Amino acid sequence: MANSPLVHIVIPGDDPPQIQDSRHLKRLEPYGQVTMYADRPETPEEKIARVQDADVMINSRGIVKWPGEILRQLPKLRMASTCSIGTDMFDLDVARECGIDICNQPGRTAPVVAEHTFGLMFALAKRAAYFTASIKSGQWPRMDSIYLQGKTLGVIGTGHIGSEMARLARAIGMNVIAWSYHPSDDKAQQLGIKYVSMDELLQTADVVSLHVMLTEESRHMMNREAFGKMKQNALLLNCGRGGLVDTDALIDALSSGQLAGAGIDVFDPEPIPSDHPLLYMEQVILTPHCADMTPEGVDLLNEGAVDNVIAFLEGRPQNIVN
Question: Which residues are part of the catalytic machinery?
């Protein structure tokens, strides 16, 4: 397939814009035809129509989903590259069954995402949204903020992003404990953290930050039972995936005062509905799934997506997750 002019590379829905103006797209020109759709496909039929002749797809927006019933109708597709670390927009089992390699970018924007999560933690602790809204409405409120130095951060998932979050927290004098599917003594020593059970983390941490992939095992790992175990007035951060959290349970924990606040970049569903209860809660900080959306982060993701495509077309596939 390498260097064949017959190779068709399709970007099926670059909305909001991610890769359409990227300098990295020119690197694909020697490998075949690139077809860009700058609007989002609205129906399954439209997705199939756009990709049915593609050998390779770059799925630049995670909001464009590829369930098994659609992938089975794309017999020509051999590879899909994501502009993301997460791959939950694909049915990985069906992709494997159909011989479609799904390639992501593990850790590529970890510093960018961790910095965003770190910022949400500070915005929550210092009541930034509440104070700003109050002052703009003519009030001059008095409420204690949260002093973070010396407090305990509980990191759930110590991959690239979770590890960087731990490093940032330790740099300001926080204690860091962690839970992982694969705890490692070497990693604990390297990061200066302590691995603990999930129950101990929830019961001990002043701030809980989610950094695991969304799988059937991790879906709604933060549920009513988990929130009930957390310290009174703890903070929750989620820059992982919306499905990690049972949103109804989160709303109840916030409303009851069990949690002091939540910083959320990812939602289930996305975009968040305009009448969603989270939008009316003073103790939350919300950002629109943009943790890696800095000029540096966008360029890194676009470069990585194109790198994966070129590697595949040259017969040396990389970052295959399925």
Answer: 241, 270, 289
